[in-house]
Amino acid sequence: MKLTTRDEEMLAGRHGEPLRKAMASLVTLGRAYGAEDMVDIGYAHIHAGMAMYKDDVQLMEDLADAGAKVAVPSSANIANADLVNWRQTGAPESLVRLQQRAAGAHDRMGSACAFTCTPYWAGHWPTWNTHMVSIESTVTIFCNSVLGARSNRDGFFSVYAAMTGRYPRFGYHLDEARQGTHLVRLEVMPQSVSDFSALGFHVGRSLSGGVAVFDGFAKRPTLDELDALGAALGTSGGISMFIVPGVTPPYATVEDAFPSGRPGSAIVADEAGIRATYDHFTEGDGSFDLVHIGCPHASFEEMKGYARMLDGKRVKASLELWVTTSRSVRNMAAEAGYVAILERAGARVISDTCPMSCHFARTASPDPALGVQPPTLRGMVLDSAKQAKYVRDMVRCPVLLTSTEKAIESAVTGLFLPRFSA
Predict the structure, then answer these.
(1) Which of 14, 21, 215, 401 is 20 to 30 Å from 331 by CA-CA measure?
(2) pTM, whole model, 2 decimals?
């Protein structure tokens, strides 16, 4: 790899052990993927330090104790607990205190304690052609696709890139990787954010990586709809970029999006495909204990919509309704009066975490001293295919996927209302 003078200095340890370790790891990564050189990055979305995993918080504390600092604007990914209002989730205090230690490490390193999977709604908005890194798949696909920034799915390497401001030039940092590989021809217009999530999951199951190009939307998708589409594509298909010509940068037409100008055969997405996703995530006898909305973490516009749908209603006393969002959006929604409406209806507005990332998870391996006992749940009603997939895999309870509006009505009535009538 071609390295700059400063890269070589960091690799030689002339700027301290933390930067030597970080640069050595990035060089190893770059060589593994055949990168010719490195790029300067302008933003990093990095590992939170997850309290549910043994020694994970210690990894971040060790870096902070050694004097590591982030070199570019950086935000922390979702955590294992709401660090402020944790009692409403039933999280063990020992888990919360450990997670708060990770926040302290981020503070010392200079990264923003956003603790969200949607940092763009919290003000972290990398612009077109900004090289960046991300540990979170939803962030990667939204920034690649909607914003036109350049990112791979980076794991812990995102922390090392944040420290050095450098990253190997491979994958979606290259122009040739940012062109269409599969055409998706739409024969249906999704009717809600939840439908976009179901569509993305359905299409992702038909693909294995690559860049999906969508053609045929009857109207321009909103930012929330594009967010839901991308999150689900990344969940079922491992996809890190999609293109909607004329909507996402830089391609104006379907032909522009493909290197040959000829897309070839198309994957057809219709209402049956959307229905198939809802059916795929409808399990059990219809009983449930918890309704969750806000995956990925809700935007301000979504919080406004939730408040409108719940205003004057009341969540059934035997159930819980979780609304998850970033702490930044929560604060904005509180100032606008939306949090008060939601809480008056009996909803719990939760930041920093979500059901699949909190103490509900049965696939994590927490230190027994933390006293984490996942609750037994009869079922969970959800409006996100991404959350449904990971709740099924990690929380291991039956899932019931429906639209946001019907999820809220399910929380009010205590009866599961499917997206489509039988």
Answers:
(1) 401
(2) 0.97
